[in-house]
């Protein structure tokens, strides 16, 4: 029986690979290096949208205008990347989406950390820790240099002991670091931002940056690591999934576009691992339930689109594996009908819904 089960799993994964080779999804967005394939910008500028509330876009919500902004500048104008010809398949989408920095100038980030540090009575960074932090940020501009452990320890201290309203520069540094490596030491701190999400000042921004860092880790972490201090992709996926499943995760109440898009991107990136057969069927079923729950209450177009593509990836994976049930199909159809789409002109949501509908008929 065990041999038969292994053979069945191998056959399912082989079928998925063959399906991907013959129905490869389009590369959404432009060809520029670092382009965000869902916004078309030459480089991703976290947390900005032309239709987002200007009071919480592109500003440091705690210190005001003209200061360090973990959100960056407004995105470059460009065509909406999902206005695709109907003959072009959106699924499966197999390219991870990341949140790279728009520049490598860490002086403003470390300057903000030093400003916050001077305001603290307890848990201040020592002069040695500040020096270690400078060494770490310097190493991030050299991809071949491993970030020093002393600097990582200083980041962990800020993320776990500083007031939430002062943690975001440290998390933003880790977001940048995760483009190349993700140290095991900071992973629990990133995951803790899910549990700490509340209406407390700073909590949602910390959550947003932590989720961006996890997305970057899913992109960069290798399947095997030579150093025990670094996170492997399988371990990262396991820890994220164990946190995300509905029975262990409090209901997420996200109020900003930044947070919604970051979380939808996480669902999409995890769905790619479902297509690849890395996430097994039981975990995929729970991830599918979480994605449908998110879609049923979300209205932001970018967040809806990314989670729709993630939903489509998982349905396609279940279908190619022969585990897509009639019960799941019956739940998906009304969900798709509830998504609001434009009634005129090209519409990427309508294109995605149309393609997913063909999978559940």
Textual characterization of the structure:
The structure is a single chain. It is built from 13 helices and no strands. With 361 residues, the protein is mainly α. Among the domains are: 91-231, Leucine-rich Repeat Variant (Alpha Horseshoe), CATH 1.25.10.10; 251-360. The radius of gyration is 21 Å and the shape is elongated. It starts with a helix and ends with a helix. Residues 40-58 have a biased composition (Polar residues). Residues 64-82 have a biased composition (Low complexity). Residues 89-359 form the PUL domain.
What topology emerges from the helices and strands here?
Elements: H1 2-22, H2 107-118, H3 127-140, H4 149-161, H5 168-177, H6 187-195, H7 203-220, H8 233-244, H9 257-275, H10 281-297, H11 301-321, H12 326-338, H13 348-360
Helix pairs in contact: 2-5, 3-4, 4-5, 5-7, 6-7, 7-8, 7-9, 9-10, 9-11, 10-11, 11-13, 12-13
């Amino acid at each position: 029986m065990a041999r038969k089960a292994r053979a069945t799993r191998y056959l399912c994964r082989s079928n998925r690979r063959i399906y991907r080779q013959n129905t490869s999804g389009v590369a959404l967005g432009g060809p520029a290096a670092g382009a965000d394939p869902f916004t078309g910008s030459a480089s991703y500028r976290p947390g900005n949208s032309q239709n987002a509330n200007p009071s919480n876009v592109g500003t440091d919500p705690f210190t005001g205008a003209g200061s360090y902004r973990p959100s960056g500048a407004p995105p470059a104008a460009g065509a909406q990347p999902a206005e695709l010809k109907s003959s072009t398949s959106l699924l499966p989408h197999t390219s991870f989406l990341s949140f790279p920095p728009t520049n490598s100038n860490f002086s403003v980030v470390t300057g903000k950390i030093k400003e916050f540090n001077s305001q603290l009575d307890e848990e201040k960074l020592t002069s040695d820790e500040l020096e270690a932090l400078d060494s770490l940020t310097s190493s991030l501009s050299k991809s071949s240099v491993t970030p020093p452990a002393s600097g990582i320890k200083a980041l962990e201290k800020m993320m776990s002991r500083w007031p939430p309203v002062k943690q975001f520069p440290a998390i933003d540094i880790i977001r940048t670091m995760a483009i190349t490596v993700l140290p095991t030491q900071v992973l629990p701190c990133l995951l803790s931002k899910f549990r700490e999400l509340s209406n407390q000042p700073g909590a949602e921004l910390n959550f947003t940056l932590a989720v961006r860092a996890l997305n970057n880790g899913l992109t960069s972490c290798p399947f095997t690591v030579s150093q025990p201090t670094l996170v492997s992709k399988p371990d990262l996926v396991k820890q994220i999934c164990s946190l995300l499943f509905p029975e262990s995760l409090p209901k997420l109440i996200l109020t900003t576009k930044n947070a919604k898009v970051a979380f939808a991107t996480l669902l999409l990136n995890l769905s790619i691992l479902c297509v690849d057969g890395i996430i097994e069927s039981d975990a995929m079923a729970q991830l599918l339930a979480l994605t449908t729950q998110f879609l049923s209450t979300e209205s932001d177009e970018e967040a809806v689109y990314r989670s729709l593509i993630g939903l489509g990836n998982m349905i396609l994976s279940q279908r190619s594996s022969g585990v897509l049930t009639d019960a799941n199909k019956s739940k998906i159809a009304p969900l798709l009908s509830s998504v609001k789409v434009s009634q005129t002109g090209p519409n990427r949501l309508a294109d995605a819904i149309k393609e997913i509908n063909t999978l559940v008929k």
